[in-house]
Amino acid sequence: MEKRIRNITFISIIILSTVMHFNHFSKDLMSVHVWRQTQTQVTISTFYEEDMNIFNPRRHDRGDTDGIFRMEFPIMQWLVACLYKVFGNHLIITRLFMFLVGLLAVLGMYQLLDELFHAPILSAIGAWAFNFSPSFYYYTINPMPDNFALCCSIWGLALFFRWYNGQKNKYLIFSNLLICLGALSKLPFILFYIVPLVYFIQQTIKNGLKKEYFIQAVLAGGMAIFPIAWYAVVIPQWKGNAVLGGMLKNDDSPYKIMDYLQHNLISTMPELLVGYGSMLFFLAGFFFLVKNKSYKNAKFSLLLWLSVGVLMYYLFEANAIAKIHDYYLFPFYPLLFILVAYGAFHLYNSGKTIYRNLALACVVAIPIVCFFRMHDRWNPEAPGFNKDLLVYKTELQQAIPNDALVVVGNDESYFISFYYIDKKGWGFHDDNLTAKNLKWMISKGAEYLYTDSKNILKKPAIAKMVGELVFERGSIQVYKLKKSEET
Predict the structure, then answer these.
(1) What are 85-102's pLDDT values in tens digits?
(2) Residue pair 176/221 in contact by the 8 Å Cβ criterion
(3) Cα–Cα distance between 50 and 58 in angstroms, integer?
(4) Mean pLDDT across the stretch 468-473?
């Protein structure tokens, strides 16, 4: 019966989610956080085109350098590039890979809930609600390392609790490996090691030091050394990254920070993370948690400490997360949907027909609410950047030789324009290109200027370094730059 419920639920999710996403698989990158999507996609394409060394992720905003730019460990990007080696450089391959990762995350959520509660209906509703979380639904076909990190981390927790429930030590090893991959892919997911850490601390306090605990602790957490080592090496190379300093380097006023907190609590969490269709279940989860005194369960304390860790992470990064970086909140997902699933199950089994019918109505409403909240994403008419880049992408790429170095602006992201024109060089934004900088770029090999700025060429010192107009589409112009001796 359990397998039947799982299979029916998962097949239904695959079919419905595929139908809901179908029109978007063939679209180019656009919409919310497209800068992060283009950054990830460029890393994938440069692995494929330049160097499959996983330690050398690259960016196009590189000037005349090799472009190596190490942030998160690019295991996900590298895996997609491997698929490109087989199938060719096609964005739909990335989208399908991400969709598969999303489905595996949903299956992992089912497995995690099953290990915690051993109730197939609860696990099925939780997986269903998680799949149609609006933010998860949106990001699940977009190139984001956070998706891969979330999938690995959910499975890492699920396998830890499978071991906790009396299974073999091999589940500890696989749990360790998956949480390690999650943390490598995105540093905040290292917090998921809190669960095995707290467990073995509790056992040691209760039963004293034992060799068995030490061995099991190493099996459960020893691989944490790899993400720690990676980030210890690469973090010093990050310059001007607000995430590093967090609240320790905060320039926002207390009022603004409180505004961020309020927004994420009353808007982002119910509207984008949980989804309005699941909010009744979420609130019911708190009610039944207290009513049934489920907090006395030993597993609860492990999840409580994980909740504290994730909450502390949020409070530290509140200024960087602000109101817009909802994908920074992915570590909350397992905790949120444990509550959603728990509340839904007890509401459904409350013994009152009205509550059961209400629960069934919410289950039906969840994907509908999700669809209408997100249906305007992937809109080519409002892609989240200069639409001419999207409309004239192929022509902009073919306007000049592929290997020519360029100067590109305005583009605050330093990723979007480079992705769409598929060229390498130097970027600028807010018209902050100076004659001195442009002269230096030309001396380093810059040959062309891509710009949608109406003001750059009004600067006489810059204008005299800009030659003929070689291409123009919409608001974007491509100029030949004069060599130093010509100016």
Answers:
(1) 999 999 999 999 999 999
(2) yes
(3) 9
(4) 94
